[in-house]
Specification:
44% of the residues lie in helices and 15% in strands. The protein is built from 14 helices and twelve strands.
């Protein structure tokens, strides 16, 4: 497996690229939007197929902003979250949506989008279409514990889907290693291409005068550790060190977190908000907290680093790859005590915390750019197409 960029032939013509994924929220959606924009600027024709039952007003605004880049359009169909017999119906819907678009590339993102894209792409192959089937897991089922029977079903399904895959693109070394360990070492083309950021995202964001002490931005799920963050705030309050916080996001566990805040008597200290652009949210807090139990290559960490936002994050997934030599700053996932200690230390030394944020920004700027990411992804597409057509 390679971490290197794929070279793009100088005479390469434009491609017809369709991205397929389930849920238009979070870092996966951000990744697809960045790719679509960069690919359209490079002269390719791009389209999206995704779930019609998820997302809200915020996501609709994002789709509207992306529309000029989608020459092949936006196509929304129902997609189930869990594995079900209806997935064959969903894959057929993907095939029917993709067929008139005549894609050169069908790029699946996430476990469900990857399954639909690869099955649908295989149906297209059977009808005579020459389409390259690309898969980026974005964590997905790779976060699951292989010791549980139901999870082994997912990994078995991944092995079946690999036979329908022309290339893997992993966004972190962690993700690539997790696939190799829990599924098996991939046999098709496989490479690691980290997520990238736009140049304008490296402009620092300063906290507003009325900023709260801490901030969470992301999906409201236990996988993201929001419950640990809330309990750490309660622990600090109980020690006589009360702090305030904003929580931005939406998700299946939102109601439970609101109830937890009420039960722990943190109602005056914690404010909940709907999803908001990251850089807008950053200004509302002095320190961003990423309390995740599992991640792959989280955009929120990259975005905060680029904006020089002071940050506390856990040692999970691809986060240590972002921090590099500074990964000793990370805290243990799932530990209320470790998180509370890190939050207390950050609040006690705002100047030192800000200095560390600037240091991390310089490191991220060196590696994580959208243009480098998109060029490398295109190289994988070209290599997969060439292999399918039997050319060098």
């Amino acid at each position: 497996m390679s971490d290197a960029s794929f070279a793009i032939p100088a005479a390469s013509g434009p491609l017809r690229i369709v991205h397929c994924f389930r849920n238009p929220i979070g870092g996966l959606f951000r990744h697809v939007r960045d790719l679509c924009g960069a690919q359209a600027r490079a002269g390719h024709e791009v389209g999206i197929i995704c779930d019609s039952t998820t997302g809200g007003a915020f996501e609709e605004k994002l789709f509207a902003g992306l529309a000029p880049a989608l020459a092949l359009g936006l196509h929304r169909i129902p997609m189930e979250r869990s594995i079900a017999l209806s997935d064959l119906v969903g894959a057929r819907r993907v095939q029917r949506a993709a067929k008139p678009l005549s894609p050169d590339v069908l790029h699946g993102h996430g476990a469900k989008g990857g399954a639909y894209a690869r099955i649908g792409g295989t149906f297209l192959r059977a009808s005579g279409k020459r389409v390259a089937r690309i898969y980026t897991p974005h964590g997905g089922s790779l976060h699951y514990d292989p010791g549980e029977l139901k999870n082994r079903v997912y990994f078995a399904a991944e092995r079946v889907f690999e036979t329908m895959t022309d290339a893997f693109i992993f966004v972190s070394r962690y993700e690539a290693d997790a696939y190799a360990a829990k599924v098996h070492p991939p046999k098709p083309i496989a490479t690691i291409i980290p997520n990238g950021l736009r140049e304008d995202e490296f402009v620092p964001v300063a906290p507003a005068p009325d900023a709260r002490d801490f901030l969470y931005v992301g999906m409201l799920r236990d996988l993201k550790g929001v419950d640990v963050f809330i309990r750490a705030l309660a622990a600090l309050r109980d020690r006589g060190r009360p702090h305030t916080a904003h929580i931005f996001g939406a998700g299946d566990d939102a109601a439970r977190y609101r109830a937890m805040v009420a039960e722990l008597r943190l109602g005056d200290a914690v404010a909940f908000h709907e999803p908001t652009p990251a850089r807008t949210a950053f200004a509302t807090g002095r320190v961003l907290v990423i309390p995740s139990r599992a991640e792959s290559m989280p955009y929120i960490v990259l975005e905060a680093a680029a904006a020089a936002v002071p940050m506390i994050a856990t040692r999970v997934g691809g986060i240590p790859e972002i921090f590099g030599e500074k990964s000793d700053r990370l805290v243990e996932p799932g530990s209320v005590e470790s998180l509370a200690a890190a939050m207390e230390a950050a609040a006690a030394d705002p100047e030192g915390t800000a200095r560390k944020a600037v240091e991390l920004r310089d490191e991220v700027r060196r590696i994580h750019t959208v243009d480098a990411m998109a060029a490398s992804v295109e190289g994988v597409y070209r290599a997969a197409i060439a292999r399918r057509r039997g050319t060098p």
